[in-house]
Design brief:
457 residues; Rossmann fold; UDP-N-acetylmuramoyl-L-alanine:D-glutamate ligase; 23 strands
């Protein structure tokens, strides 16, 4: 089968492309504004990438067009369609489907799917769970919204029956407004946490809770729901009805709890110590992610002690507190954090790692659709509390970032472009500082530019 993927460079669609290629299908695709690591991964797989969404791609005549949720019926200012290829597909009556639907029918059917859902930590927890199953000899397939360093790729079919998938609550496609994860039909589901996000498609938290309950409805009676016992929102989700076994984690009274520091802790099951995790990963949030992975792995027969031993060699994910370089004692990090809670927990994780005396310079761009809308701008000072200085790239925003950060006083600065932000950082940076760059996009290559500028200073 020849599939042509519209929006192929998104993390999900790029992973789908890799799976389709591995399964023997011919894969081509198109997108705009591509950036590593996905573009590099696709080219390494020999997948042809076409820039843009021109209607001339109809000449490829694939067996199926797979449509990413970046595609819409939107029109440009001149009245022409933003995605002419999609218009041509509709006019021709050509076969098309969504990415999650294609994945469900061609990859997930008949397998034990372990789905990881939540506002934060999906990619990291999916990677942890996959590594645990791999070390336990289960040879799982997986699709992760990033590149786990233990594997070097974001997706593979796997030789075993288990398939681990990052389960996103964002909508499926312009023609299917259900959350992606309702297509996956998991037997094991992690509900990691649940906050308001994706303000561009959800009106409020209750609307997201409803989608999470749709996921719960698809889990069979012999399945397992692994739920964060600290989250009231998830308690509300399960109170709407749950027909599967439930295992909680996080709270002191949960089925799975932790005792000790995030880098070295005992895993308690029903109050009894059953394993010990010792690793280089920091942050309370990652301790919770580990508990979720251990509880989910147990459902497919992996003992907590085996899971904990596997986590000791877990190497995290690209763009999760990834050190991009050190120049003159100044360390530059790249992290995917973009929601205020994720920014706060990421900074807290770094603070715990480096101690109270070293300085953290938080450099971020409000790039997600939710942040662009300004829905959570009031939470930014709270999210940046543990940083010594904060630098915001405010280009393209329709709201006043300087006003939102005003409560931080002299600790916060705003730049209209990447060059201006770099200039502000260089004027403040000192040897021994930690420059934490946070964005869910490429951030204009700021990491390499900072390292170069620091080297020349």
């Amino acid at each position: 089968m020849h599939i042509h993927i519209l929006g192929i460079c998104g993390t999900f669609m790029g992973g789908l492309a890799a799976l389709a290629r591995e399964a023997g299908h011919r894969v081509t695709g198109c997108d705009t504004g591509v950036y590593p690591p996905m573009s590099e991964q696709l080219r390494a797989l020999g997948i042809d990438l076409i820039e843009g969404f021109g209607a001339d791609q109809m000449a490829l005549k694939p067996d199926m067009y797979v449509i990413g949720n970046v595609v819409s019926r939107a029109r440009q200012a001149d009245g022409n369609p933003k995605f002419p290829l999609m218009e041509a597909i509709l006019e021709a009556g050509a076969p098309y489907t969504s990415g999650p639907q294609w994945l469900s029918e061609h990859v997930l059917q008949g397998r034990h799917v372990l789905a990881v859902a939540g506002t934060h930590g999906k990619t990291t927890t999916t990677s942890m769970l996959t590594w645990v199953l791999e070390q336990a000899g289960l040879q799982p397939g997986f699709l992760v919204g990033g590149v786990p360093l233990n594997f070097g790729v974001s997706a593979r079919l796997g030789a075993g029956n288990c398939f681990v998938i990052e389960a996103d609550e964002y909508d499926t496609a312009f023609f299917d407004k259900r959350s992606k994860f309702v297509h996956y039909r998991p037997r094991t589901a992690i509900l990691n946490n649940l906050e308001f996000d994706h303000a561009d498609i959800f009106d409020n938290l209750a609307a997201i809770e409803r989608q999470f309950h749709h996921l719960v409805r698809t889990i069979p009676g012999s399945g397992r729901v692994v739920v964060n016992g600290l989250e009231e929102s998830l308690t509300r989700v399960l109170s709407q009805g749950c027909w599967s076994e439930v295992r909680s984690f996080g709270a002191a009274v949960s089925d799975f709890a932790a005792e000790g520091e995030p880098s070295d802790f005992q895993v308690l099951q029903a109050g009894r110590s059953v394993a010990r995790v010792q690793w280089s990963i920091g942050g309370v949030h990652n301790q919770l992610n580990a508990l979720a992975a251990i509880a989910a792995a147990e459902h497919v027969g992996v003992a907590p002690e085996t899971a904990a031993r596997a986590l000791s060699s877990f190497e995290n994910v690209k763009r999760r507190m990834e050190v991009r370089g050190t120049v003159k004692g100044i360390t530059v990090y790249d992290d995917f954090a973009h929601h205020p809670t994720a920014i706060r927990t990421t900074i807290n994780g770094l603070r715990r790692q480096i101690g109270p005396d070293a300085r953290i310079l938080a450099i971020f761009e409000p790039r997600s659709n939710t942040m662009k809308l300004g829905t959570m701008k009031a939470q930014l000072p709270w999210s940046l509390e543990e940083a010594d200085l904060a630098f915001c790239h405010a280009g393209g925003l329709d709201w006043d970032a300087a006003a939102a950060l005003a409560p931080m006083g002299q600790k916060a600065q705003v730049g209209a472009n990447v060059a201006e932000v770099i200039g502000q950082v260089l004027a403040q940076v000192k040897p021994g500082d930690h420059l934490l760059c946070m964005s869910n996009g490429g951030f204009g290559g700021i990491h390499a530019q900072l390292l170069k500028a620091l080297g020349q200073a």
